[in-house]
Every structure is written in structure tokens, then in C-alpha cells.
Design brief:
2 domains, Rossmann fold, about 375 residues, two-stranded antiparallel ribbon, about 10% strand, Dehydroquinate synthase-like, alpha domain, 6-stranded parallel beta sheet, 14 helices, alpha/beta
């Protein structure tokens, strides 16, 4: 058994206010900090005020990155914008997209990359090249990506119609700060879709080829918390205690799949998001129940997984997931997502991301993917 995760975790109410002390472990007061946020409504939020007070002793440059599912073009533009100064620390405050950008910059800032093609090549080669890394701190404002606990970044490449993954093994965050205050303004739809993404992270980690006793423990804990509390949070989105619980569940799922990666559900979701604009968490959740049934005979401890979901079968898991999708205002059919039947072939052809589809415990064929898509149509 093997498990590794070096992220220093600070979780609980009030953790954000302690950011200055936390940051001082990696950057002395007065040093340069690159702060990346989603911008927009965040600019006037209590979270930003607390954040800036906590970083008052630092030379902070703030950059807004209001991009969902960032393309390699978007991150190349941000890299060009911030280059020219040395930063001792990067602080990323936002959802997975902000953290994906921060992770990529943490490595690319020390390069001479000057074009989108250069960044594309860098990302494709990142896992094998020695890179001087800028330490970064992840502060999630959604509870679902687990990005603050994983070493890889998702970067879309729409020109090439694919998803890139920057996965340098040393690009874990220096620290993760999990404070329910940061997620209080998260809209209901995003709250639900991101929590279902975390449930998928946990379930896929549970059955991934590299699963272990440790990752399975984190997976089951995450699923139990989400199953027990997400419906209540959907009904009471201002409940800080529930926000804290779901935030920790997302973190536990992140710790699990930080060592295993995800599997076929994520792989199939990528073209559904990239081509058809379905939010990532919803796109993943759509196929989770069907692929859970597909993997049944190859999953050790399958009954424990069902028990964590409080369900007696994969079909019941699917029913619960769909009930939560409807609470978030999401369609539960591909047709309802605006996808045409003739588009299913495109999704199938682009559903085999290396390191994800081939990480599934049961070999995945185009026929299997098409069958799931047809059931969901």
C-alpha cells in the first residue's frame, strides 16, 4: 500500500483570517504574492476583505481570472500578463478553474514560454521535466473540485478538441485553507453540481486501478458526508455548518483521488463539457450510476460503496444523483442538455482520455460508452 499527499491543511471556521500566519511559512512578510481570484462579485465580498486584511503585510498583486474551464489560450494570456516579476507565493481563491490556472502558473512562471503553442508543449511534457516551482496556496470557494489537494491541473484545448492535464508530481499546493465562509455565496446550482463532482471523485477513486486502503477510507467518508448532508444544504444554503461539512467532504474526496486519479465517468464527461457546455459536475454525475453498475463485478467492497450512498443498488444511486441534479436545475437526460442523438458518436470518440478511461477497473469499449449514452439520451 502506498499513499502520498504533502498538502498542509487548515480547515474550519476562521481559517481564512489566519492566512497571513499560514503564508509566512513559505513567504516572509513584505515579499511578493500573486493573488488569483475569479473577480466579478468577489471584489466586493466579505471573503476578499478578510483575505486582504490577512495579507496586509505582503506586496500583493491581484489578478482576476473569471474563466470557467480555462483554455490553454486563457492561461497563456494570464502568464504573459503576470510575467516580469518574481513571486514568492501564489494564492488561488476560487473554484477549480482558478486553481488550475494557479497550478499551471506555479510551474510556468520560471520558463521563457511566450506563446500558446509553447505553453501547450510545456503542459504535455510537464510530468517528465524538472521544473522550479513557485509555492501556492489553494482556497476553494466551491466544494467539489478537490483541486487544493491534487497535483494536476485541467487545461482545455478547444483548438485541438481535447483536454490537457498538467500533472507534475511536485505541483501539490503548499497549503489548503478550507473555510465555510468562502462558499456561503456559492449559488445553489454550483453547490449541488460541485458536490456531485466530489461524490464522483470519491466513487471513482474507490474503484480506480490504483485504489488502496487509505484512499478507500477517504472515499467512503466523503460519500457518506455528501449523501447525509447535501439535501439539507440544498434546502438551507446559508447554513455555515453544512457548508463546512460539504467542504470537508470535498477535501476528503480530493485526498482520495490525489493518489488514484479518476476513471471513465470523468473521461466521458470531458467532451460533454467541452463541446456542449454542460457544467463539469453535472456532466460527471450523469454517468456515475450507470458506470457504477458497469464496474460492479470488479469492485472489491461494492456493498460498502452502496452503503455509503445509503442505497441498495447502482440504480438507486443514479436515482438519488438525478434527484439532486433536478434540485440544482440541471437536466437528467442528454437530450435535455441540448445534445442531439447524432452527437453521441462525437462524445464516444472523444471519451477516452489517457489516464482516466484506462484507469477504470473494467476495460471500457466504445460500445460500452455508447450504450450508457443511449440510456441517458
Amino acid at each position: 500500500m502506498e499513499f502520498y499527499n504533502p498538502v498542509h491543511i487548515f480547515a474550519g471556521r476562521g481559517a481564512l483570517a489566519d492566512l497571513g500566519r499560514i503564508a509566512s511559512r513559505w513567504a516572509l512578510p513584505g515579499s511578493r504574492v500573486l493573488l488569483i481570484t475569479r473577480g466579478m462579485d468577489f471584489v466586493e465580498s466579505p471573503v476578499r476583505r478578510t483575505l486582504m486584511e490577512a495579507l496586509a503585510l505582503y506586496d500583493v498583486r491581484e489578478e482576476e481570472f473569471p474563466v470557467s474551464n480555462p483554455d490553454v489560450i486563457d492561461i497563456a494570456a494570464l502568464l504573459t500578463k503576470v510575467r516580469g516579476r518574481a513571486y514568492d507565493l501564489i494564492v488561488a481563491v476560487g473554484g477549480g478553474s482558478v486553481m488550475d490556472a494557479a497550478k499551471t502558473l506555479a510551474a510556468a512562471l520560471h520558463t521563457d514560454i511566450s506563446s500558446t503553442d509553447g505553453l501547450r508543449r510545456f503542459i504535455q511534457q510537464g510530468g517528465t521535466r524538472p521544473i522550479p516551482l513557485t509555492p501556492w496556496i489553494g482556497i476553494p470557494t466551491t466544494s467539489g473540485t478537490g483541486s487544493e489537494a491534487t497535483p494536476w491541473a485541467t487545461v482545455w484545448d478547444r483548438e485541438k478538441e481535447c483536454k490537457l492535464s498538467f500533472s507534475h508530481p511536485d505541483n501539490f499546493a503548499a497549503a489548503a485553507v478550507i473555510d465555510p465562509m468562502c462558499t456561503l455565496t456559492c449559488p445553489l446550482s454550483l453547490t449541488i453540481s460541485s458536490a456531485l463532482d466530489a461524490a464522483a471523485h470519491a466513487a471513482e477513486s474507490y474503484w480506480a486501478r490504483r485504489t488502496s486502503e487509505v484512499t478507500r477510507a477517504f472515499s467512503l467518508l466523503a460519500i457518506r458526508l455528501i449523501r447525509e448532508h447535501l439535501e439539507a444544504l440544498a434546502d438551507h444554503p446559508d447554513d455555515e455548518r453544512l457548508r463546512e461539512i460539504i467542504g470537508k467532504a470535498s477535501l476528503y474526496a480530493g485526498l482520495a483521488f490525489s493518489n488514484t486519479k479518476t476513471t471513465v465517468c470523468h473521461s466521458v464527461s470531458y467532451p460533454i463539457t467541452e463541446k456542449f457546455g454542460v457544467p463539469h459536475g453535472a456532466a460527471v454525475a450523469l454517468t456515475l450510476g450507470d458506470f457504477m453498475a458497469y464496474n460492479k463485478d470488479a469492485v472489491s467492497g461494492y456493498d460498502d460503496l452502496l452503503e455509503a450512498f445509503r442505497c441498495g443498488s447502482a440504480e438507486e444511486v443514479k436515482d438519488w444523483i438525478f434527484s439532486m441534479l433536478r434540485k440544482g436545475g440541471f437536466a437528467t437526460t442528454l437530450r435535455g442538455c441540448g445534445i442531439r442523438e447524432e452527437d453521441l458518436s462525437y462524445i464516444t470518440a472523444h471519451a477516452f482520455t489517457k489516464g482516466r478511461a484506462d484507469n477504470n477497473p473494467v476495460p471500457v469499449t466504445e460500445e460500452a460508452v455508447m450504450n450508457v449514452l443511449k440510456r441517458l439520451y
